Structure formats: structure tokens, C-alpha cells
Amino acid sequence: MKKLQRTVNEKYMVSPFLAFFLIHSIQFGIGILNFQGKIIERVGNDAWIAVIFGGILIHIIIWLIFKILIIGNGDLITIHYDVFGKWIGGFFSLVWILYFWAIGIIVLRTYVEVIQVWMFQDISVIFFTITFLLLVYYIVSGGFRIVTGISFLGVVIPAYLLLTLIYPLNQTEFRNILPIWDHSTTEILLASKDMTLSFLGFSTLLMFYPYLKHANKSKLWVHGANFITMFIYLGIMIISLAYFSQKHLLRYHSPTLTMWKSVELPFVERFEYVGISSWALIILPNICLAFWAASRGMRQLFRFSQRKALIGMLLFTIFPVYIIKEREHIEVLNDYISHFGFYLITCYLPILLVVTYFRKGRRKKH
Amino acid sequence: MTRSICILFFLIVVLSSCVNKEILDDVRIATAVGFELAENEELKVTAVVPNYMPDKTITNEVATETARINKEAREKLDRTKSRPYVSGKIEVLVYSKEISEKGLMPYIDSYFRDPTVGSKIFLTVTDSDIQGLLQYQYGTRDNGMYISDMIEHNINVGSLPTTNFHDFLNSYYAEGKDPFLPLIRQIDNEIKIIGNALFKDDKLVGEIPEDKLFTFKSLMDRKTSQDSITIEMDKEKYAFLHKIKSNRTFKFDNVEKTKEFTININIEGLIHEYSGGKIDKKMAEEITKKTKEQITSQAEEMIKTFQELETDPLGLGEHVRSHTKNWDSKKWYETYPNLNVTVNTKVKLTETGIIE
After folding, report:
1. pLDDT tens, A250-271?
2. C-alpha distance from residue B303 to each of A331, B180, B343 (Å)
3. Cβ pair A174, A242 in contact under 8 A
4. Contacting residues of B for A141, CB less than 8 Å apart
5. pLDDT at residue B272, as a whole number
6. Residue ranges in B28-120 assigned as alpha helix (H)
């Protein structure tokens, strides 16, 4: 049995600025395809305000995570071990591991579903999943530095997709956004809560924090990543509001993809095919980082090789991806996991901060 | 171990590509589809496919089938053809007046649902026999491309306001706006835009005739350019005004109480033709005045018709909504027919061509 690893060898570490790509790539994934519907259903034309509020809330939680990590000095598993002991701490760690794993599963399944609806109705889910998971295995088994590299590429290469937002701009009617603040503050706050669900995933920071060189310097980069994510969400929300009338938008499963229908290029009749294929590169780091965090958690918790944990997890992923067949189930599962994640970061993390502070932070001062 | 992994990987790569292929030469790429009602109240669907001949000409292939719903007709058509139909390249959907009066949404559904159909295709209404309209070879290409090009250039440099599939759905789903579609007709061996069809929700309720298209476009779009109007001066003299640019603004204040709504149109144009001879300063003023009168009276008359039909293609409701907190659509529809809409037109003649 291995030992609980508290420090990471410097040769496995990454520069603090890469935290930007890690955080941004995991926040920005499947959610962007259909985040508008839920928010607009609640607050209509004020949806963009909810995006800003949601983003601010996430900034606060990131601040909180850094506090925990600095006081606790380690990753989530060692902190749990230190403050709650072996059994209770182990239980909480397991919950988080399952959460990270679930993120990986649901992102993959949702992506396959997008391919099924938009590109190939008759694609074999199981073969696609296995191919994709082989790729994930290849990347994650290469270690954290490789995962970081993929995150970097997964942000930089598909960035050109943002240019396609110019096309729907031709048909926008910006008066759709007026009047500002037409809904009650409570409604807007509730919508902001829904919005935060689209930002989730950044809590993997709890796992990879020890891998950041000069971790203190990464703070700005992590906040920067969240800011950019919020900015892109805001841009897409405003364009969607202006491009669709509200009831029209609510008819679509994924308004973001529908906007690509307005792209007209001389050499591509249907841009969605190019876009969705490029999207694979956006969700790849997403899945890799989730599986990395989950398998790293397993290694720390049960002290056996991360590679074995990873193989086990990947094998067990095929099953749920295969049995979830209906879109409705995918949506419900997405909902459950994101709500679970929401309560983990908004309710559990503050408690963890307080407990960590009393168990570890105060001791330091003596 | 390594070998079995290699075999597995090979199989996965090979088998993953086992999805349905659609090779360009092996499918019928429909470019236009027409819908009308058959005698037995069934749906009569006409599909247009370009046929690329060996001598590089394109012929217009047309097939018609009746069925209960659209996709059933397609399935029936597929059974008669050597290659299956695909809908990824549809450019135009043509609906008969009868169907438009019944409500278009059920006949749009299959294209609304389809991920392969673009949002920039055109929807049109016609009062001609659709099978006949689509059968005749108008240009050197198939009729789908022909009609689509015709509508597109009339939007860019003619008298049609911006319209496409996305706009139609947007206006249909908007609470304070109703859609409109271009109206086409087959006249002998020509196909022609003869006006616009007005909708209330998805049902056809009225028409805008050819001679009012200029005014309609000026009212519809916030900024327009490049369309033209013939101005009737007195004593059988006519002037032809070409629009350089125009903008349109809405003004209102507490509209539900005052019931006053003002539309301002500013037009900048030049004279392309005048049958009265020389245009001096006085004449130019006269033309400006006449243009103003003609557009204002046409616009006000048109808006009255809209109010009578209770349709709102200009989206006055949407505009009021965007400036009113807690806007109530029901209340607006009670106000709308009694709204007192004033149109103010300003015309500026910038040039008269290269002669005085």
C-alpha cells in the first residue's frame, strides 16, 4: 500500500498560469450548449443579469476554496483526512470522488447525445464511448502535466468557434433585452443559482492545487479563468436573447447549436458538423480532468496505483453511458449532478472552511 | 496483450465509421418543396431537385405525391425513385394560400425539427398552382435556387423587407409581433413577387399589394436602402425615386393611456427618372412634397388595415414591450386596434443624376 501523498515532486508540477486553462476548460463544456433555456424560462429578458450574478458567486466560492487549500495545505483528500479523521474524512472524500467521476460520465454522455441528434442518428454509442475513453486513458495515464497540456489545447484550438457568433449578429434585435430588471430580485437571484450550475467543475481545483508551482500566484489566473468563462456566457446569452424571441428559444434543446444554422460559408453548407466535431476538443479536457481528479482521489484515499483506479473507473463508465438511452434521462441526470455539485460547493465548502480553520489554521498560530 | 489491444483498437476505428453515409451523387438534394391541398383534403407535396446533366446544364426535376403529412409524402416519393431525397440543401418552401389560411405551423414542423435544415431558407406563399409553378424551368438552374436568388436580391436591393425561416419563427413566437411572407405568383412563363402575405399567428389574414412594397419595407426595417418607388406627380408626370438610405424610429409615451403612437421615417434618395423634363429647385421641392404625401398616406392606410386585421407585422407591440415594465400582452391587444398611429415622413433628395 502506498502512502498518502502530501507533496508533489517538482518535476510533475505545472506553472501557475496554466491554472487558467485548467479551470476555463473544465467550466466551459457541455453546459454552454443549452444553458439559456432554464434561465430565460425564469427571468426572460433579464437572463443576462443572472449570468453576471452567477459568475460573481463563483468568484466568492473560488476565494473560499483558496482559503481552505492554503489553511489545509494539501489536496481535498489530505485535508479531509486531517480534519475529519480516517473514516468520516474518507466518507466525504468518496462523495467528492464520485462527484468528479459523475461529471466525466455525464459530459461524455451528453456529448454523444448531441452527436446523435445533430449528426449521426445511428452512431454506435458503445463504440464511440470506448474510443473516446481510450483517448482519455491515454491522456490521463500520462500524468497531470499531459492533462494540463490538453486543457491548454482544448481552450486555444477551438477558440475560433467564438468567431461564428458574428453570423447570428446580423439578425439580432437588441431591444429584446429591454426593459432591464423587469423581474423581481428574488426571481433573478433564483435564476443566478441556476446559472452557477453552468460554471461547475472548477472544484477540481481542490484536487490539483498541490500540482501548481508557486500556488499562491495561481489565484489571479483561476479568477481570471472564471471571469473569461462568465464573459463568454454573458456574450452568448445576450446574443441568444437578441437573436431569438423568448418563446422561440425555449422550443430548442440547444439554442447555441441552433445559432450555428445561420452560418453561411461558401465551402460549408452546414456549419454544425464542423462545430460539433470541434466541440470534441472542448469536452476532451473536461472529461480528462474529471477522470484525473477522480482517479487521483482514489489513489489518495485507498492508496493504490492511480493507473489501476483509472482503468477501473473507465470500465465502469461504459455501463452507465450505454444504459442511459433517452434524452429525458440524460437531462434529469445532468440536473441531479449539477444540483449535487451546487450544494457541495455552496453548503459543504463553507463548513469545511470553518472546520479546517479551527482544526488546522489556529494551531499554526501557536 | 498488446496484440489484442491493437486488434480491439483497429476494430473500434473501423466499426465506428459504420454510420449511414450520404454521398452527394447518391442522393436527391431537394432545393424547393411546395405544399398545397389535394382534392381529398390530403397534402400534396411537390419537391424540386436539380439534375446535373453530363453537358453541364442543370435541369429542374419535379415530383409530386399526396399524403397525410409531409414526411409520409417523402417516404412515398422515395419508393418511386432511384435515389433517396435529403433535405439538407432546401432553399425555399412554397405554401399555397389555402394552407396558409389554415395555419402554417403544422406544415413547418418537420423542417423546424430537422437539424439539417438551415435557418436562412425562405418561406413563400403563392396563389398559383404549385405543381405548375415549380415545374416550369425559369432559369438555367433548378427552381429552388432560382426562387431563392430572386427573393434574396429583392431583399438586398429591392423592395422586400428582410425575411427568412428564422424571422418567421421569431415573429410567430414573439408576443408583440406577427410574421409576414413574400407572395409569389406564376404569370405565364415568369415567376414574380407580387406582394407580401400578412399573418396573424400562423394564419394568413391579408396581403400587401405590389405598389405598396416600398412603404412596407420602409416601415418594417429599422434601416433600409436600395429600393425604389414611382411617385405620381400631377398631369401624368411621374418621378422615379431611388432610396439611398432610410431609417425608421418609433415614438410613444404611456401608450396604453394616450393611445398615441408616432412612426418617423427619414428617407434619403435620388431621382433616377422624371418624365416632366428639367428638375429645378421648385420642382425638386414639389417631388419631395409628393413623395412625402404618397408614403405617409400609404403608410397610414396600411397601418389601419393592420389594425382592422389585428395583425402587427411591424412589431409595435414588441417595441412597446421593450419600453414598458410588466408589459401585458392581452392588454396590448385590446389597445392595438384603437391605437392612433401617426406617420411622419421626411424626404431628402440628394442627387438628380448627371443632368440638371
Report:
1. 999 889 989 988 888 888 878 8
2. 46, 14, 9
3. yes
4. none
5. 84
6. 70-78, 97-102, 105-113
Higher pLDDT, B256 or B324: B324
With respect to residue A240, please indicate whether it lies within any of the assigned structural domains. Answer: yes
Quote the pLDDT of residue A363. 60
Query: In whole angstroms, what is the distance from residue B309 CA to residue B199 CA?
Result: 9
| H or E stretch at B88 | none
Judged by phi (left if over 0) then psi (alpha if -120 to 50, else beta), residue A73 lies in left
Cα separation values, A253 from A35, A239, A283, A328, B51, Å: 10, 17, 18, 11, 36
CA angle B322/B323/B327 to nearest 5° reads 75
Range(s) of the domain holding residue A351: 10-361
pLDDT of B12 > 70? The answer is no
How confident is the model over B305-309, as a mean pLDDT?
Answer: 90
* Percentage above 90 pLDDT, chain A: 28
Q: Do A269 and B120 touch (CB under 8 A)?
A: no
Residue numbers in B near A261 (CB within 8 A): 117-120, 166
C-alpha cell recorded at residue B285: 421641392
> For chain A, how many structural domains are there in total?
1
The reply to whether A4 falls in a domain is: no
- Which of B118, B173, B323 has the CB atom closest to A179's CB atom? B323
Chain B residues near residue A40 by CB distance under 8 angstroms:
none
Alpha-carbon distance of B276 to B305, in angstroms, equals: 34
Q: Do A247 and B173 touch (CB under 8 A)?
A: yes
Mutate to test the interface with B, among A33, A239, A252, A261 (most CBs of B within 10 A): A261
Q: From B116, which residue of chain A is nearest by alpha-carbon distance?
A: A270
* Segments in chain B forming alpha helices (H): 2-16, 70-78, 97-102, 105-113, 130-135, 143-157, 165-173, 213-220, 255-258, 281-309, 316-322, 329-335
> Half-sphere exposure of A185 toward its Cβ, with a 13 Å CA cutoff?
0
Sole residue written with cell 411617385: B231
Beta-strand (E) ranges in A117-198?
none
Confirm whether A366 is domain-assigned: no
Cβ pair B166:A122 closer than 8 A: no
C-alpha cell at B89: 440543401
A213, part of any domain = yes
- A131–B16: do the CB atoms touch at under 8 Å? yes
Residues of A in contact with B174 (CB under 8 A): 245, 247-248
The pLDDT tens digits of the residues spanning A73-83 come to 888 888 888 88
Closest CA to A112 of A313, A257, A280: A280
B171 → chain A, closest CA residue: A245
Question: How far is B147 from B122, CA to CA, in rounded Å?
Answer: 9
CATH code: domain of residue A241: 1.20.1740.10
3-state secondary structure B267-280: EEEEEEEECCCCCC
Q: Cell numbers at residue A351, please? A: 463548513
